[in-house]
Design brief:
By secondary structure, the protein is of the alpha/beta class. The chain folds into two domains: about 280 residues, 3-Layer(aba) Sandwich (Rossmann fold); about 35 residues. The protein is built from 15 helices and eight strands. An eight-stranded mixed β-sheet has the order 3-4-2-5-1-6-7-8, sandwiched between helices. The longest helix is centred in the last third of the chain and has 38 residues. The chain is elongated, with a radius of gyration of 26 Å. It starts with 18 loop residues before the first strand and ends with a helix. It binds adenosine-5'-diphosphate (ADP) and magnesium ion. InterPro entries: AAA_dom, DNA_Partitioning_ATPase, P-loop_NTPase. This is AAA domain-containing protein. It holds the Pfam family AAA_31.
């Protein structure tokens, strides 16, 4: 992470702690990681300096940026004070966006994170010197120590909700937990919105949506993220859908959800939420289209080189560039294995034919001697 770069909206005033948005819902599979990644990229397109923190031990957000396997140092080391964020955050291809990756150590040692009483403001303190405007945290789908660490420092929580029949109960439980953290550990914890994700035109989904909107009112963002196959396609390519398809329904949904979330944070008028003014929607979309033109084209070139066998990943700077390259060279293994099988097949056939010829010769010689 290069701290010498200047903030787009750099002010002469001393740096303020970044606004921290934790993306959390106790339910799994509701698009938390998808939302965290798209939100982080959209915020960057709006001109903010953003740090995406992957606190999910599955490391899906980290993998979404082409980092595989998980690096040796990342979020766990920063939280526990074993590493400095400036040393372990990774550059991404999106200028102004950094990634603090999940690590194997987070997976193995989640229980070693600081006891809850001392978590208050810990992550905020660890990330204070980054100079970013916004930190987006992808939380695991449970109240693991990592989630508590994030909620104990967060400015606000963004809750993605997939309106299936169990969504309401999941949201009520999550809401209850947020209220509990607010009352006990982080009095300033706010709500950055409830975001309906993967919505479809089915009556059950519509009913659940109606109930949630009626109960949670203007905490629910007006924008919904429709279910769209492009989102899964984008995830496979290692791109957020806002970059793969910025003008499609899901891509535009995330851009508009980002604006709405920012407006909601500003409307809450909390004096500690300081954000420079965002770029316009048109400017953000233009930036996303530019990224699509350059990054996606680069990806297509690289997947063409790998003959469609490699897992295509966007190229990034630093560690990620070498990791992406190693993914590409791994691909020919399968082709080599196929050539070997063909050789074995030819050798076996030749041996079989030679065996038949010898047998025929022996039979012929036998007949000659009788
Ligand atoms: N709008 C969408 N349309 C279609 N598939 C989606 C959408 N959003 C997320 N998904 C898919 O749903 C699955 C779960 O999403 P994910 O972000 O990993 O959820 P979580 O982090 O809550 O477990 C992933 O396969 C993802 O690609
Ligand atoms: Mg996830």
């Amino acid at each position: 992470m290069d701290e010498t770069e200047s903030t787009p909206a750099a002010a002469s005033t001393p740096p303020l702690p970044p606004v921290m948005v934790a993306v959390f819902n106790q339910k799994g599979g509701v698009a938390k990681t998808t939302t965290a990644c798209n939100l982080a990229v959209s915020l960057t397109a709006f001109g903010y300096r953003v740090l995406l923190v992957d606190l999910d031990t599955q490391g899906n957000a980290t993998a979404s940026f082409g980092v595989a396997p998980l690096p040796a140092e990342g979020a766990f080391e920063v939280i526990t004070g074993r590493a400095d964020v400036a040393d372990v955050a990774l550059d991404t291809v999106y200028e102004g966006l950094w990634l603090l990756p999940a690590t194997q150590s987070l997976r193995d040692n989640d229980h070693l994170l600081t006891p809850s009483g001392r978590r208050r403001g810990l992550l905020e303190a660890r990330l204070a010197g980054t100079g970013v405007d916004i930190v987006v945290v992808d939380c695991p789908p449970s109240l693991a120590a990592a989630t508590s660490t994030a909620l104990a420092s967060a400015t606000a929580v963004l809750m993605p909700v997939h309106p299936d029949p169990f969504a309401h109960d999941g949201l009520v439980n999550t809401w209850y937990e947020i209220c509990r953290v607010r009352e006990t550990v982080n009095y300033q914890l706010g709500v950055a919105g409830i975001l309906l994700t993967m919505t479809e035109a089915d009556p059950t989904g519509a009913d659940v949506t109606r109930v949630i909107r009626a109960e949670f009112g203007d905490q629910v963002l007006g924008v919904e993220i429709p279910a769209q196959i492009k989102v899964a396609e984008a995830a496979q390519l290692g791109l957020p859908v806002t970059v793969l398809d910025p003008d499609g329904p899901a891509g535009l949904g995330y851009v508009d959800a980002t604006r709405e979330m920012l407006a909601l944070l500003v409307r809450q008028n909390r004096h500690w939420v300081h954000l420079p003014e965002a770029a316009s929607r048109d400017a953000a979309l233009e930036r996303l289209r530019e990224w699509r033109a350059t990054i996606h084209a680069d990806l297509l070139n690289r997947s063409a080189i790998a003959s469609g066998l490699a897992e295509a990943r966007p190229r990034t700077t630093g560690e990620r560039m070498s990791q992406a390259a190693s993914v590409a060279v791994a691909a020919p293994k399968r082709a080599k294995w196929r050539v070997l099988t063909l050789n074995q097949f030819i050798a076996l056939t030749a041996a079989f034919v030679a065996g038949m010829a010898i047998e025929a010769l022996v039979e012929f010689l036998g007949r000659m001697t009788h």
